[in-house]
Structures are given as C-alpha cells and as structure tokens.
Amino acid sequence: MKFLDQCKVYVKSGGGGDGCVSFRREKFIPFGGPDGGDGGRGGDVIIEAVEGLNTLIDYRYLQHYKAERGIHGMGANRTGSDAPTLVLKVPVGTQVFEEDQETLIADLDKLGDSVLLAKGGTGGWGNTKFKSSTNQAPRRFNPGHDGEERWIWLRLKLIADAGLLGMPNAGKSTFLAAVSAAKPKIADYPFTTLVPNLGVVSIGIGASFVLADIPGLIEGAAEGAGVGTRFLGHVERCSVLLHLVDGTQEDVAGAYKTIRSELKKYGGGLYEKKEIVALNKIDALSEDEIKEKASALKKACKKAPLLLSGATGKGVPETVRKLFQIVQDDRAAQRAVQIEAEKTPEEKEEGWSP
Predict the structure, then answer these.
(1) CB neighbours (10 Å) of residue 130?
(2) 208 vs 283: CA distance, rounded Å
(3) What global pTM score does this model have?
(4) Contact (Cβ atoms closer than 8 angstroms) between residue 212 and residue 158
(5) In angstroms, rounded to a whole number, what is the distance separating the alpha carbons of residues 256 and 4?
(6) DSSP letters along 215-270, please?
(7) How far apart are CA 242 and CA 169, in angstroms?
(8) Residues in Cβ contact with 214 at an 8 Å cutoff, skipping those fewer than 6 apart
(9) Number of H helices, E strands in the chain
(10) Cα 66 to the chain's mean position, in Å?
(11) Domains of the chain by residue range
C-alpha cells in the first residue's frame, strides 16, 4: 500500500428536500384541506478516525465527497426521509485544516474521534404549514435549504510511542527491522527510506510499543530541504526519540548537532522531548575508534551514548528496554491525568484515588 500523509478534499452536505403542495381528496370529502408534507433533511458530512488505516491514499484518487439530498415531502402529510450521513474514514492521528492549511478544525488523535464538517440543509415546509383561518387552501411551499460546502486539508501524524531520528544512512531502518516484524527497505545509500515506517516492538508477554522510522534528515530540513521535512510531524506524538548517529562517519558530533538544530527550528515540541542517543554501526569500528567517537559524541550531547549495532544486534536489547521504560512511565502519567480529569467534584474534595 502506498503512503500518503497529506491531501486536499472537497466536501458538500446534502440539500434539504422541498415541501409538497397537496390537498386531501377522498370520496365524500371533497374539501379535505391541505396535506402536503415537509421535505427531509440533507445528509451531513462527518470525518471519523477508525482503526485499520495508516495512510490517506484513498483520498488521492477521489477528492470530491457529496452527501445525498433529503427526500421531498409527499401528500397525506408524509414527510420526506432524511438523507444518510456521509462518513469520511481516516487513520487515527489525522488533523483537519481549513483551506488555508493553518486553521486547525480538529485533531483526531483517538480512535472513534469525529467532527462535523458540513451540516445538511433543512427540509422545506409543505403547504400544510401555511394553513390559517384566513387561508385554508394555501398553495405555498418552501424549497429545501442548500447544504454547506468547503475545501479542507487532511494531514496525517502517525501515532507511535517512540521515534527514530538521524542523518540519512544512519541505520534507522536496520534497527527497526531488528526489533520488530517490520520490513523496511534497507540499502547502503542515503535516502533509502522515503516514507515513514511503523513497527511493533514486543517486550515479553503482553508488553509492546510502537516504533516509528522516518526518512533521514539533513541540514536545512526545517526549511524544506531533503525528503524528511514533512515527516517530522510523525514523531511529534512520541514519548521518546532514539537518535542514531552513524559511527562510520568522520564527524559524529557534527551530525548530532545538525539534527538537534533542525529539531529546534522545526518546533512542535520535538527539541524538548526525551532523547536517547546511540552510536550505531560499532561492528564496523575498532575498539579505539569506538572510544574516540563515543567520547566526541558524549561531549556534544552531554551524556554517555549507547553503543549498538543494528546489523549484529549488539546493544539492541538494552536500547529497547530503555525506550520501553520511558514509554511505560509516560503511559502511567497519562493514565493518572485521565483518572484525575474523570473524578467528580465530590471525589476531588474527598481525595479519592483508585
């Protein structure tokens, strides 16, 4: 399946059905009076986050969505039926923006989240509604109201617990393949990864977290350089970032500082996120080279980096455990906040806790 994380979509709700002009005509009731029914309501257009999707590719080929019109009113005071609601299904983590791409309409970051994009038009009145003591045979009706229409932008930010960062060819995809069942493209050249990849990392029985791998970043990424620019948003929701530095390059400290600089320019809270720094590809280095480059990297990041090799698996289990510990702590903190928010005023006063 191809990956698409941004698209423009046109939506239009259904117009209301027209009211009906009708008069009751039965045997022995020659002047039964008006009995025209009202029109039905037009269909709404809503957008909903559902499971089983991780791309917006469906909206690449079909960009116009129009809800049905309400049914017209009928005689015998029969109201036309309402049109069904049109539901646009998107992956969890999708953001909805106005046409200007800046005004946020909704952030669908939880399963089942939904928002009304266009409200259906109300149905028109039939001539029964216009009956009065001075006009007992009205021939007037109201047409249904038109629906709403708008252009919107959909932007996907993948939901992952941890994210991989680094320069191109830093070994991110190799690490993801080593710790999960994901099968990203792996090759010995920069920009092998062109789209984000997700993998589920299992830690024992019943314990796991989602790891995201995005395309490598280069200097100037925050201003639009390279293929990793627009994909930084996919790690905005992560609890922790694993920053992999290629140990085979000359200036490991410079590579680390370049990525940190781009995170600061990009914003979105990425620069302040918890970070684990690791010197990767140590299988290709001698002991002296490992010590030298680990020392240089420690000086740059102000902490001792982890030493690992995604290709041989050395240091990988320890790295995964550190990632999971931070993810677990973050989940516990989020649960505590949710429990506190769900307390009633009486429970808060009594200091109730689960």
Answers:
(1) 18
(2) 27
(3) 0.76
(4) yes
(5) 29
(6) PPP-TTGGGT-SSSGGGGGGGTT-SEEEEEEETTSS-HHHHHHHHHHHHHHH-TTT
(7) 15
(8) 163, 164, 165, 172, 193, 196, 228, 231, 232, 234, 235
(9) 6, 14
(10) 22
(11) 1-156, 162-339
User: With contact defined as beta carbons under 8 Å apart, do 273 and 199 qualify?
Assistant: no
Residue 41 has pLDDT above 90, yes or no: yes
CATH class of 1-156: mainly beta
Which residue type occupies 139?
A: R
In whole angstroms, what is the distance from residue 191 CA to residue 169 CA? 7
Please, are residues 93 and 198 in contact by the beta-carbon 8 Å criterion? no
Beta-carbon contacts of 101 under 8 Å, excluding residues fewer than 6 positions away, are 153
For residue 194, pLDDT beyond 90: no
Contact 83, 29 (CB under 8 A): no
- The Cα–Cα gap between 241 and 256 comes to 13
pLDDT at 224: 52
Give dist(CA 291, CA 320) in Å, integer.
Answer: 22
Is-contact 205 154, C-beta < 8 A?
no
Give dist(CA 19, CA 128) in Å, integer: 9
User: 162-339: which CATH number, 3.40.50.1450, 3.30.365.10, 3.40.50.300, 3.40.50.2000?
Assistant: 3.40.50.300
Closest CA to 23 of 33, 11, 37, 10: 33
Which helix (H) or strand (E) is 94 found in, with range?
Answer: strand 94-97
Q: What is the 3-state secondary structure (H, E, C) of 282-313?
A: HHHCCHHHHHHHHHHHHHHHCCCCEECCCCCC
- The whole-angstrom separation of Cα 280 and Cα 287 is 14
What is the greatest pairwise CA distance in the chain? 109
CA distances from 110 to 51, 91, 106, 147 (A): 10, 10, 11, 28
Backbone angles phi, psi at 210, to 5 degrees: -100, 130
Give, for 316, the enclosing helix (H) or strand (E).
helix 316-342
pLDDT digits (tens, 9 = 90+) for 149-188: 999 999 988 888 898 888 888 888 888 888 887 665 555 5
